[in-house]
Amino acid sequence: MKKKSLFAVSALCISASAAHAQSSVTLYGLIDAGLTYTNNQHGQKNFQATSGDTNGSRWGLRGAEDLGGGLKAIFTLENGFSIQSGSLGQGGRMFGRQAFVGLSSETYGALTAGRQYDSVVDYLGPLSLTGTQYGGTHFAHPYDNDNLDNSYRVSNSVKYQSVSYDGFKFGGLYGFSNQAGGFASNRAYSVGASYNWGPLNAAVGYLQLNNSGSTFATGAVSDDATFSAGTQRTFGGGLSYAFGPAVAGVVITQTKLSAATGIGAYASGTNKGLTLTRGDARFTNYEVNGRYNLTPALAIIGSYTFTDARVSGVSPKYNQINLRTDYSLSKRTDVYLEGVYQHVSGTGNSGITADITGLSASSGNNQVAATIGLRTRF
Description:
This protein is mainly beta. The chain has helices at 2-22, 119-124, and strands at 23-41, 44-51, 58-68, 71-80, 98-105, 109-116, 154-161, 168-175, 188-197, 200-212, 227-243, 246-258, 262-263, 274-275, 281-293, 298-310, 317-328, 333-345, 366-377.
């Protein structure tokens, strides 16, 4: 009897070990807290505690189950929050950053469904400083007009991402409106591709939103949209090249709006509430960036962006300079100091002012912000 019991326990342990080897669930996260000084927010100086100046604070669950033959079932549930207040991000969604499930093949790529990043973010985003571990929210192009800082995700979406073919990858996404009788209202679709060859990286991407920012909350991009517009089209390309401890890059994007009515109340986490007139608008962004590792722990990072816009009957010209130094205390934790300067001209009487992403707008044509922060991962 004792031998039978011992055999049963041993068999149970072996089965548990095999199940553990075939599937896994990982808890992960990132916490980013800072102190930011701004010289002008609605005409006043401000010194404030901030969350997610470089990367949005988050925690998530990521899982995979081995189905055999190189096929896996995968999922990700990722929550965004403010470390300063403990409140939910992304309009109060529990898993507002990402929430998807799908299948991944070592041969054919991954097919997933849920709330996900678009292809411009997936492929072109890593070549820009904003939205990456090297830059941050304040480095974004005006209003994050091209979404490289991940101001919004696409709900109700189906996405395909290929495996790497000698450094070449591609993918696409479609976000459903989920509206009866309005299949094309508040939907989204995008495509992108990237190529890596040693020190060289190149990428392109395209995104189109229909009726983004509508009050129909179950659409592809609704209450967290940057713009309220009949159609939004964003496309761009970029290159980066590594020279030993240095990396230099360039990213060019353009966002075109038709039947535009405003810059959404949730744009980049701050209340913009700007009304756009004349219907059509355009933002063309030219970014050059670079970083240099003085030591394995210390890096200097910077970028310059020129944005040529056509909006509300005027032609604003934005010049933005971003500088940052980052020191790694360990593999998981770093401290950083960054400064951002933005100047806008050609605004006429449109009401457009300098407006660094993630902060309240200036009352004039210039705005300066400086942040010291701590970031840790788990």
